[in-house]
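Final report, Chapter 2: Outcomes

The project's central promise was a pipeline that accepts a single protein chain and returns its three-dimensional structure in a standardized token representation, suitable for archiving and comparison. That pipeline is now operational. To close this chapter, we reproduce one record exactly as it appears in the project archive, with the input sequence first and the structure output second.
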Amino acid sequence: MKILITGSNGFIGKNLQVYLAQRQDVELLLFDLPQTTDDLKMLANQADFVFHFAGVNRPQDSEEFYTGNRDLTRALVEMLERENRHIPVVLSSSVWAIRDYPYGISKKEAEDIVFAYSKKADAPTYVYRFPHVFGRWCKPNYNSVVATFCYNVVNNIPLRVDDPDVELTLIYIDDVVRDFERILEGHIVPKADGFIEYPCYHKVTLGWLAETITGFADSAQALDISNPLLKKLYTTFISYFKR
């Protein structure tokens, strides 16, 4: 199976790329900047399955939300439709897609484009509205408070917590990529609305998260971990010592 991963050098794309590279039954087709839409077309014409992660979330100009999220998604599905490539597409979207501002609107429009492709091409699609995904290779001071807290503690930078009672939904990247593999193996079916249920997730407060990651600085205390979430957070924390 030839699998196209767009945004292959991003956080989710890189983790999936490394995970699937261990399999002998797949060939990975990778797309990311500075490749062009011509490159994307060539790869899309070969693909049997698409994981579409490429997108924009921190542009200098808000118009880039639309070109990087909506327009690129439209270009991808139009390439598939023109070549009668009625193949499965997995889209990484965001819980912010319900928000009425440029990033959320652009993600919602990308979802609608994928759903329309599914109906027109009679192709299976899988749309995830992810909350806070964390794990190795996630950038600090970008879009992950877990990454930022880990980086700051490792580098002796004070943590900023404006409201310790804010609740977060966390998903570990390894749980995400295992879910993607289950899609490839035919074990996951979208809900009636077309979205996919989250893989294993955890509810925490911002204050708890800050206290927990700060506590990891005492490695002797952190080594004895039996809680699954603490294991995931500690594994992420340790990865920042290797950077």
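Archive annotation: The first helix runs from residue 11 to 20.
This record, like all others produced under the grant, will remain available to the consortium after the project formally closes.
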